[in-house]
Each structure stands twice: as structure tokens, then as C-alpha cells.
Amino acid sequence: MTQPLRKDWDTYFMDIAFMASTRSRCPRRHVGAVLVQGKKLLGTAYNGAPMGVPDCSEAGCMIVEEFEPAPAGSAETMVKKQRCIRTIHAEQNLLLFTDRIDREGSTVYVTDQPCWTCANMLANSGIREIVYHRVYQKDYAKVAALMAQKNLVFRTIEGYVPPPDTGVQDALS
Q: Tens digits of per-residue pLDDT, 11-29?
């Protein structure tokens, strides 16, 4: 009898991050994060409202509109963006519910590249590496520059495909 192929560690932990994302009730995006030291899983988290508070699926999103400079080469000078302020990001929840001592030298697997705020928090958390799947184009350049400045490994897994039972769509909306 042939043994099924064994997943490599990166795939295994990223799959767990995607499974954690299925707990999110955010109608806009489900994000999951996993903290790993060596090959030991230390914590999981997902994006959502604070505990005990109605989430976006119950109370609706709390959308704020902001204006940001348009990407270089665009005819417009400012672009209107919308974001939900009810939700705590998966990376923030991961930091809230894990101990600093456990984070020292650890790796964070996250379904989506961290936004600027989460990247700043992770850069100051003691971790040594961030592995993500989906790029967050808006913040990519400045987040990548911060990770390089902090000498943190910042990478994606080439050819990774999320587990089919997570309902993930790869395109950022």
C-alpha cells in the first residue's frame, strides 16, 4: 500500500492559517494567522469583532472612507478607499493572545500579507519571519521595506494552493 504524500511544513502551517480563517464572520475578507516556533504550533487567530461584541455579520460593517494618494502613473491624484473599523485583524488577535516569550524567534503564517499597521506590530513582536499567501498590493512596497530594514524574513510560498474547504478566493477585492 502506498503512503499518501506528506505535506511540507510551510504548506501544513499555511493550511492551518486558512482553516483558522474559516472562523471569521467578516463579510469582506476572512484572514487567519498562525504562530509557529520550530515545528510547534503556538497559537491561531482570525479577524473579527472583539469578543462579546456583535460582529459585522450581526451588526453590519463599520465602514470609514479615507482618501489616499493614487498609485504612481495614475491620472487621479487621490483615491477613495473604504475600510471596516469593527474588525480586529488576525495578526493583531494573534499578538493579543500569545506570549512575547513564545514569539521570540518564531514564524507567523498568515493568509494575507499584513497591512502596514499589522506589519509594524509584527516587526516589534519578536518574530523572525512572516509567511503569507495573498499580496496586499496597497501596502506591499512599504511593508517589504520595513521587513528588510528589520532583517525579518518576508516571503510567500510558491505554488501554494489553499485547502478547498476554506472557500477562499485568491483575488483581493
A: 999 999 999 999 998 888 8
Annotated binding site for Zn(2+): 89, 115, 118
Strand partners, 69: 78
Please give the annotated binding residues, written as ranges.
89, 115, 118
Active site positions, annotated: 91
Q: Model-level pTM?
A: 0.87
Here the CATH number for the domain that contains residue 38 is 3.40.140.10
**The predicted structure's pLDDT at residue 170:** 47
Q: Which domain holds residue 136?
A: 9-47+87-157
